[in-house]
Automatic annotation (TrEMBL), chains A, B:
<comment type="similarity">
    <text>Belongs to the FAD-binding oxidoreductase/transferase type 4 family.</text>
</comment>
<comment type="subunit">
    <text>Interacts with CSRP3.</text>
</comment>
<comment type="function">
    <text>Involved in D-lactate, but not L-lactate catabolic process.</text>
</comment>
<dbReference type="Pfam" id="PF01565">
    <property type="entry name" value="FAD_binding_4"/>
</dbReference>
<keyword id="KW-0496">Mitochondrion</keyword>
<dbReference type="InterPro" id="IPR036318">
    <property type="entry name" value="FAD-bd_PCMH-like_sf"/>
</dbReference>
<dbReference type="GO" id="GO:0071949">
    <property type="term" value="F:FAD binding"/>
</dbReference>
<keyword id="KW-0560">Oxidoreductase</keyword>
<keyword id="KW-0285">Flavoprotein</keyword>
<feature type="domain" description="FAD-binding PCMH-type">
    <location>
        <begin position="69"/>
        <end position="249"/>
    </location>
</feature>
<dbReference type="InterPro" id="IPR016164">
    <property type="entry name" value="FAD-linked_Oxase-like_C"/>
</dbReference>
<dbReference type="InterPro" id="IPR016166">
    <property type="entry name" value="FAD-bd_PCMH"/>
</dbReference>
<protein>
    <recommendedName>
        <fullName>Probable D-lactate dehydrogenase, mitochondrial</fullName>
        <ecNumber>1.1.2.4</ecNumber>
    </recommendedName>
</protein>
<dbReference type="Pfam" id="PF02913">
    <property type="entry name" value="FAD-oxidase_C"/>
</dbReference>
<dbReference type="InterPro" id="IPR006094">
    <property type="entry name" value="Oxid_FAD_bind_N"/>
</dbReference>
<dbReference type="GO" id="GO:0008720">
    <property type="term" value="F:D-lactate dehydrogenase (NAD+) activity"/>
</dbReference>
<dbReference type="InterPro" id="IPR016171">
    <property type="entry name" value="Vanillyl_alc_oxidase_C-sub2"/>
</dbReference>
């Protein structure tokens, strides 16, 4: 049974987390460095331009947007097609070299760090949008395609892909992380919106999780391999194609902002709007600190109180009804009148402000680094956990505006940390662990959408228990017996 | 590479499929019979009443509602709690006895047959509804709880569980089969509606796929174990609890029937209704043969032409808009005026007629047996595959009314077969294989919701390719190295 860490070990672990990098703290005895002969093979597969040993390029591929320290790979390769990915993987497999898939590096839990060195597979050169079937609401994309570029491509078709984690992440990276974001309350997460994946396994084998080219809207044909790879964070295979479910662009959309006297009334409104069956597209909570930061950063002037950003999608008529029901509920909870964003430009400005929350938080303390926590609890537990978390922030003397996809029970503290202050770092670490454990104590999860990466491996074990972790390790061993794929992520192999 | 079967082998395989049973065709050398000492252990775990060796009970647990021949287990056990399931599994594991989980026996692909003998775990005595959280829209059920009993229990809460495969199946059995049915077009399948599972593994270990008691609406915490067990058909573990997502009962519901001049116009209407963004709850297609059978069986008088049964859920106002849009579309395609079912009783009669399609089909040829095919294709391919299938039925001189969840691209031919006519059986077999391959050639799947069981193992291989099958086998080996859990289902172990 997992007994928890002592405080000393916790501090050590957090320091290690920030430092976790082959060059600093981990022996590399089991892995060979990348030899010249191997580099020649890489060049013969993806050309002179398809491989980089330059320090800047390696540094750039050794980190994401989290506070996890940069762990550069030994070499970065840039395959142009699945056959090249497969050939490169075969070489790595033969030479026992770690393989780290890289999309856009917008992850938040250290998922791309080369903690044992090895070969980073940057998939940016595979950026084709393939096989759009507008009449079937599906499309297939290569791993270099980002969500914004897909939606730009779709603009004239009347279709869109709604999963929106904020960052312009690659869609296959979003599949790997089981990403979601602001629209998930209505349209689901990547789990519900990936229909098929092409995956290169550790030994170079190419599979299609639902069969090559298949795209039925539902299936019960064998084990759900698609959803085994969605959320596997590059530890089970390299995703080289994703077939995605598309949606018709709604006839009408309208956004609104509503201020509340308290966290409780804002969250109560959320729960009641969902209970009333309003098919709300987005319902985002920002606490007073967050809205203040957004006001400053995006030159807005919303009341500095707990706030909901809402968005409604539908026909003109159904919109009216949705909005009326929602407004009735918010007003009965003491919410302000809705401030409207009806035209595309105003709506876009509003959501840009929400997506810029990260930068707005950072701007509260120039020179500091933002670190986003991520927990998710059942809806009814939201007011309590947010209130307790705000008290904890004050007691811990920390800056952490809160923003969240409250329709899913998912929220983030955007911690703004001085990386040169070890005491503050320690307090942040203790705070984030308390937050995660608070979520666990309320039947929730330590991560609703950011994934486990390096940062949440110990918490994952607490969340699932040793038996479920052992099952996960068994799946990992079955698919990647040499433990080459994105080592040390999700599971701490053989260290438990 | 899979090269397909010759006709001779096909016939052999189909005969084998109908006969597949330890007593008839498979050696049992690897498995010991259930010895007295083992039976004593079973009795000490679940009491004298918790075990049955009676022929009638064993027969009853050796078959589902398909044409697969009855394969009775050696013994049936009736555990009362997860601890008993775990203890029984440990005994089976020690003595290398096959374990076959049994819910209600309403499956359609031979999933419960004890093809290698062994121990059937009937879960009917575990029938408690636990941990209802109305404010969070979730509930946890034991494996003996059926969907109808859950919805009866929920009646006063304003909530319901919408996944509806027709039969009053157990909810954990529905999870095991990845079931769906008429409401999936709006509410999703079991894949989207199971939040957590308690599972007993082959060696008796108890796991919770998302952590014990956890019920966040979304998570990205590690591999998606929940959706690995959903659809695993008892081959990876015994599901002993399921936490399910609930929905608010809509303010208003209305059903309608609409007749069409052709299959094409009925299916075109379906596609256009979905494209228009109507959040339709049910849209069911019945071909002329099917509606004729339903008319006779349920004393109805609908026009004997391709027909849609539709259902709309929402507020009174949104319903009006949904209905108007849908009716405009159906009329532009030459559909009849809607025939309404507004009150609960009329709606219930209408959907009972749809759910009784199976018996209506059987009644077309008294003394014959119904056999339901199950394919799913992208929406745009539906008219072509249904037309080709109807022609094939005529050419093959077979009775096979067609009914389907066309909003998902999923449909069934309800074959009515004389089991004593080997020539007809052979023609049915060739027809169903052609139908499945037609679906595969149109980017579809050989099973949208019935699962693989015994019946579709060869087709599954064609659908996914040998590499993906090998990955599935690797997962099976990792979780059930002794191959004790529901042997021979989904994968044909070591026989490929």
């Amino acid at each position: 049974m997992w007994l928890g860490w002592s405080t000393g070990r916790r501090l050590l672990a957090f320091r290690r987390r920030l430092q976790l990098c082959r060059n600093v703290s981990l022996p590399n005895s089991a892995r060979g460095a990348v030899e010249d002969g191997v580099l020649s093979k890489f060049r013969s597969i993806c050309g002179e331009d398809g491989i980089s040993l330059g320090e800047a390029v390696r540094e750039q591929h050794g980190k994401d947007e989290s506070v996890h320290r940069c762990c550069p790979p030994d070499v970065v390769v840039f395959p142009r097609c699945v056959e090249e990915v497969s050939a490169l993987a075969r070489v790595c497999h033969k030479h026992n070299l770690p393989i780290i898939p890289f999309g856009t590096g917008t992850g938040l839990e250290g998922g791309v760090g080369a903690v044992q060195g090895g070969v980073c597979f940057s998939l940016r050169n595979m950026d084709q949008i393939l096989d759009l079937h507008p009449e079937d609401f599906d499309v297939t994309v290569e791993p270099g395609v980002t969500r914004k570029s897909l939606n730009a491509y779709l603009r004239d078709t009347g279709l869109w892909f709604p999963v929106d984690p904020g960052a312009d992440a690659s869609l296959c990276g979003m599949a790997a992380t089981s990403a979601s974001g602001t629209n998930a309350v209505r349209y689901g997460t990547m789990r519900e919106n990936v229909m098929n994946l092409e995956v290169v396994l550790a030994d170079g084998t190419i599979i299609h999780t639902a069969g090559k080219g298949r795209r039925p809207r539902k299936t019960s044909a064998g084990y759900n391999l698609t959803n085994l790879f969605v959320g596997s964070e590059g530890t089970l295979g390299i995703i080289t194609k994703a077939t995605l479910r598309l949606y018709g662009i709604p006839e009408a959309m309208v956004s609104a902002v509503c201020s509340f006297p308290s966290v409780q009334t804002a969250v109560d409104s959320t729960v009641q709007i969902l209970q009333a069956g309003v098919p709300i597209a987005r319902i985002e909570f920002l606490d007073d600190v967050m809205i203040d930061a957004c006001n400053r950063f995006s030159s807005l002037s919303y009341a500095v109180t707990p706030t909901l950003f809402l968005e409604f999608h539908g026909s003109e008529r159904s919109l009216e009804e949705q909005v009326n029901t929602a407004e009735e509920i918010t007003q009965s909870n003491g919410g302000s009148d809705f401030q409207w964003a009806r035209d595309a430009e105003t709506r876009s400005r509003l959501w840009k402000a929400r997506h810029d929350a990260w930068y707005a938080a950072q701007a509260l303390r120039p020179g500091c680094k933002a670190y986003s926590t991520d927990v998710c609890v059942p809806l009814s537990r939201l007011p309590q956990i947010i209130m307790e978390t705000k008290e904890d922030l004050i007691e811990s003397r920390l800056t952490g505006p809160i923003a969240g996809h409250v329709g899913d029970g998912n929220f983030h503290c955007l911690m703004v940390v001085d990386p040169s202050d070890p005491d503050e770092l320690h307090r942040v670490h203790l705070f984030t662990e308390r937050l995660a454990r608070r979520a666990l104590a309320m039947d929730g999860t330590c991560t609703g959408e950011h994934g486990v990466g390096l940062g949440k491996r110990a918490l994952l074990r607490e969340e699932l228990g040793p038996q479920a972790i052992q099952v996960m390790q068994g799946l990992k061993d079955a698919l990647d017996p040499k433990q080459l794929l994105n080592p040390e992520k999700i599971l701490q192999h053989k260290e438990q």
